[in-house]
Amino acid sequence: MIRYRNLDGEERRISVFDYCGQKKMGDSEARMLRRRLQALPQYIRRYYELRLTTIEQNQGNKKASMWLKNTFGRFVLPRIDDVNGKYLPPGALPGPLFDLRDDFNRIPWAGKRELKKLSYRLADRLTTELISEVNHQVERHGDYEFAIISGFGRAGWLITHLNMTAPGWQAYCKEELSAEDALRGAARIESPSWWLRRLRRLHDQWREHLMVAAGYVSKKAKPYCSEPCLKEWSAQKKANREYINAHELEDKETGERISLADKVNGSVANKNIRRAELMARMRGFEDLAKAEGLVGEFYTLTAPSKFHSMQRSGKRNNKYNGSSPRETQRYLCNVWAKVRAKWKREGIRTFGFRVTEPHHDGTPHWHALLFFQPEDVDFARAIFRKYALKVDGNEKGAEENRFMHVPIDEQFGSATGYIAKYISKNIDAHGMDGETDDESGELLTEMSARVSAWASRWNIRQFQQIGGAPVTVYRELGRLRDRDLWLFPEIVPAQIAAGQYDWAGYVTAQGGPLVPRDLLRVRLNYEITENGNDYGDDVSHITGVYSPFEPASSVIYTRTTSYQIVRKVEENADRGVAVGVDLALSGGPAAPRSSVNNCTREPRKSKKTAVSSTVKADHAVSKAAVTDEKIWEGVGFEKMTRKQRRAFNQHLASQCEKPRSVVESAIDIKPDRARYITDFAESCGMSLTGMEAQALAAGEVITLGGKRWYAQADGAIRDAGRSDEEIKSGLMSRVYQLAHTNRHQFGQE
């Protein structure tokens, strides 16, 4: 209460709510729910805020409070809390990570910059703890292998408090982790880029999971995936296409270049090729089944109702347990694994295809087209039904919806025709113009993009072959169709079939649709590169095919050229792209490593200066620097590439007031800076060449005498310390040296 005296000297009291012109809500629970609603991310609370405001304006505060308690607080908020509980760190964090708790709690709100900062902070903390533990164990025992494993265990233990697991953590808990594997895991833990990828995936799935739980993904809102998910997927596809169009493949030996876009468009990344290949493989299986007298069955497997956030009608499902689509997919995979294991124990063999697609609320379900021996059909069906209904099999509608089977009848269409719709629907809806989706009621041509975005967001494999020969060997043999080579006799039939796009002939040449993997007649040949990536892993690359009957003499190399991706060399830059000053200069006291110079700015000038006025007359300036505004007339901003947008922004910035002359400072300061660096080096007894002094002046880090050095703004040279790569390689060298010493001592004993 606020106390005051009026003009007559009488004491008065007024509440804060009356003073602010607001009505006090007597219900503390409603006030708490309002605070909880305001604390939610904007993309979650926007509908519920609008709903609350509408009820409050039309029906009053009492009805609004009832809606908060009976709807939002009873059904919506528990869902959101359950979802957050699956991602938030459980309990208190250890000391080294304690101040990162708020950052993890705010991941659903975070942007790209916040995630990048968190990845660096997390990598730094864990690296410090890991190295500290390694040094402690080395000083204590002198065993480098044990020290590396112990350091990994310390970092992995900290990671478990973040509701995550370190790579190789299961092997560590089982005491099966080697020192080399621990070192590889430590390299990942110390890498900010590895953490950034992991945090981005966590952020994307956490946010999408919240939108699923809050009801933003359904037939009454947006089917299959949320609107932000679709926009981000579309933007990423556009960025990928721009990158592909801006780069080429260069032969590492000859320097010859070919189009990267042509290679991508000629692979299974092309939707038309992927769809045609899937249909050809399915039709090949059907032809093999007819030749062998097998029977086809079309199965549909659906998860229990507790995995669905929405009912079929679009209403809220109150049985929902907070599972994400990825968790539902894991449940379906477990059911299928049990079915396959039981079939194998009973001697039932099968082959075919499986398609995963979402319900309107994003919950996945399976469609499978399988072929059996006629005498095994009923038994196989009963086994599948048993495991499909093992969880909550007595709930209402389970018998009708959880497992459905349709025997393939040639009178109503071929086996491939049963699954062709699902293959096309989940790729690009080719040939389905005017058809509507059973789940959402929308046009299939409009829903295919949402399905692809859904699969990308949750990392769900949409198509999977069951049984048969591997498709990668089929593709590698197809690369030989235009080459005149001598082939091993066991490879020839499979190569001829693959060259003619004959999937049935290829599978037959490999041993039939039910051939075990260890009896395949043609297999992939790999080339293994030790320490082939930044984490010290052994990386395997496909080089060709071979026959296991003569592994050494039957190898056929299908990949004989090594390429690298390089940027296109353009003779004439596209109009409106190369805007700005075209000078091979570094700017300011220290040249920035990014497009932004963070050095102290010079005093602001009073007069506006054109771009050309910042360059001295004896330096060449590109014509694009003074491009007239007419060049941008009629150019749609949405149709511009990223490169063109950056150029357009530079063009706009050139018309504004310049805080300083960037190019002028680069021309005037850089020679003096190099001379200062040379003088400082001579005073310290160091000898620098002209190139080394110029590199330090440009902000580079150079290596002299086994140490890394950098130059400050005043020309002083300082020790840059060891790089992350040197630290990792040093640890690995110590482990290898210790292992070699131990083996040598063991041999002497």
Automatic annotation (TrEMBL):
Statement: the UniProt record of this protein carries the keyword Nuclease: yes
Domain of life from the UniProt record: Bacteria
Record-level GO BP terms: DNA replication
Keywords per UniProt: DNA replication, Endonuclease, Hydrolase, Nuclease
The UniProt record lists the keyword Lyase: no
UniProt GO MF annotations: endonuclease activity; hydrolase activity
Renumbered residue ranges of the record's region Disordered: 592-614
UniProt-listed Pfam families: Phage_GPA
InterPro entries in alphabetical order: Replication_gene_A-like (IPR008766)
Residues annotated as domain Replication gene A protein-like: 114-429
Function text: Possible endonuclease which induces a single-strand cut and initiates DNA replication.
Entry similarity comment: Belongs to the phage GPA family.
Name assigned to this protein: Phage replication protein
Native species: Erwinia billingiae (strain Eb661)
